[in-house]
C-alpha cells in the first residue's frame, strides 16, 4: 500500500514525482489521488520507528545529561527526514541532478561514496592524532566512523537537492565569458595593493617603530578593499556579495595573522577553542601542554615560561605587544605541541554531544586539517580561526546573493567590526549571525515572490534556522518570522502543514535549552563566572514568585543601559579584551547608529515596498522584543546573583542577530529610492570599510610594536 503525501513533504516535488532544484517560483503542490508523489507505507513506518527509537534513546541517555538526550532525539528526527528524502531522491521517478539522472543505482553510489568518505575522514583523524595511527586497528572508532558516514550521506542528499543540475555548464560559461578578465583585474588590483602596502608598511615600521609584518597585512587589507570596490563599482566585474566576501576574508586574515596564537583575545575564546578541539576529534581527544594552556586562562604548563593571555586582563586600551613577546609565546606553544600528548579524554565528551556544538563545526574542520598536515600548533590554530572566518564570509555571500532587496544593508551589517573580529577568532556568534542573515534572506525572497512557497524553499528556511540557532537557541522567537510568508495560494492542508512545521521547529529549539533547565531543577548553581550569589535554581524560584519585581528589573535594565546608542556602539566596535572603541570615542556610537539607520532608509526599492506591512512590522517587533526578554532572562538565571535588581552578563554583541530583522521588517520605509543609485552604494561601502579599518588600526595594528 502507498500513502499519498499531502501538504509539505520533506522537499517540494513536481507532479512527475521529482523534487525541484532551486525552483523558488514553483508553488507547493498537494498530492491528490491522481497525481503527485506517493510514499509507501513501509517508508513511513521506518521513519516513525526511527523517531520512536530516538525517544527511547533520549530517555536512556538522560543519565548523561539533558543536552545529550536532546542530541539523540534531534538526531533521530534528522535521520527520519533523511530516510524519507532517500525515497524521494532515489526510489521515486528519475530526476536531474548535478550527478546526472538519479535512480536506484544512484542510491548505492551515494552509500558507497559516504562509506569511502567516512573511511578517509577516520583515517585522516588518526593520521593527525599525535598518539594514534590508522595502521592500528584498535585506534579506529566505530562511533566516529558512523558519524562521519551519516554526515557524508546527509551532505550528498543536500547537494542533490540544492546544487543546480547545470552547475558544470554554468561554471564553464563563466570561465569562458568572465574568468580571464576577472583574474586579470584582480591581479592588477591586488598586485598594486601589495606594492603600496609594502611601501606604507615600511614607512610605519621605520618611523613609528611598529612591527612590519602586521603593518603589511593591515595596509594590504585596506588597499585591497579599496581595489575590490573599484573592481565592483567601476568595472562591474564582480557582484556586491562577492566584494563583501573578499573584504571579509582580507580583513579577517589580517587579524588572524597579526597575533597567530593566544587566548584572552576574543570573548571566552579559551572555552570555544576547547570545544572546537574536542569536536575535531569527536572522541578520544589528545591534548598537549600547549592545548591545555590555551584551554585554561593564565595556565603555565611545564616547559613554558609565559601564559597565553599576553597580559590582556584587566582590559587596558593602552597596552602594546612587542614582536619578541609574540614570537616567544608562539615558539613556546609550538614547542609544547611538538613534545606530544600529556592528556587524553577517553570516549566522547558530554560537551561534544550537544546541539550547540554545531556552531563549532568550521573551527573543528580547520583544526582537523591542521593536524592532518602536521602543521605546527600556531598554524593549526590560525587555520581553525580562518575556517570560522571562511564559513562566515561564505554564508554572508549566499545571504546577500539570495535576498532580492536590502543587499547593501546586509553587506554593511556583515562588515561590522565586532562581527568580523569574532569571525576571525574561535567563537560561535558569527555562525548565529550569518545563518540569521541567510534565514531572513530566504524569508524576504518568499515574501517578495508572487507565488506561494514551495516546500523546497520552506525546508531550506527551516534548516537554516535549525542550524543557525544551535549555539544560541534563545533567539528561537525569530523562527516566527516565517509566519510573514504569504500562504494564500496554498490549500488548507498545505497551510496547516506549513504552520505545523514552523511550530515543531520552534518547540525543538526551545526544548534544546529548556530541557537542561528542567532536568537540573532550574539550572543548578549557574555559571561560576557570574561570581558569588549566583544560583540558577534559586533565581528561577525568585522570578516565579516575584514576576512584577523581575519585570521592573528588566525594564530598568533595558531602558537605561541595554537599548541605548552606547550599547549599540559597543555591539559594533568592541573587540573584547582589546578594548571598546566607543569608550575611547563616545561620539562613535552615535555615528554608527545613524549610519546604519540611514542605510536602512536609503537601501529601498520596489521589493522593499512590497515586503512592508504594518502587521508584519508589529509582528517582527514583537518577536525581537520576546528575544530580548529571553536573552535577559537567561542571563538573569545563570549569571546574576539571586534577587539582584539588575541583570549581569548581557553583552552588547547579543544585539547583532536582531538588527537585520528589525531593520528589514520594522524600520523598512515603503518607498522606492530613485536617486543616487551609483553614489549611495559607493559612499556606503567606503564608510563601512573605513569604520572597519579605523577599528582595526586603533584596537590592534597600532599596538603591535617593534
Q: Roughly what fraction of the amino acids lie in strands?
A: under 5%
In helices, the fraction of residues equals 55-70%
Principal-axes geometry comes out as globular
Main β-sheet, in a few words?
A: 2 strands, antiparallel
| Major beta sheet, strand line-up | 1-2
Q: Decide which structural class fits the backbone.
A: mainly alpha
DSSP strand count? 6
Contiguous helical run count: 26
Straight-line distance between termini: 77 Å
Mean pLDDT: 89
Spans where pLDDT lies below 50 across 5 or more residues? 1-36
Keywords: Membrane, Transmembrane, Transmembrane helix
Protein name: DUF2142 domain-containing protein
Pfam families: DUF2142 (PF09913)
InterPro entries: DUF2142_membrane
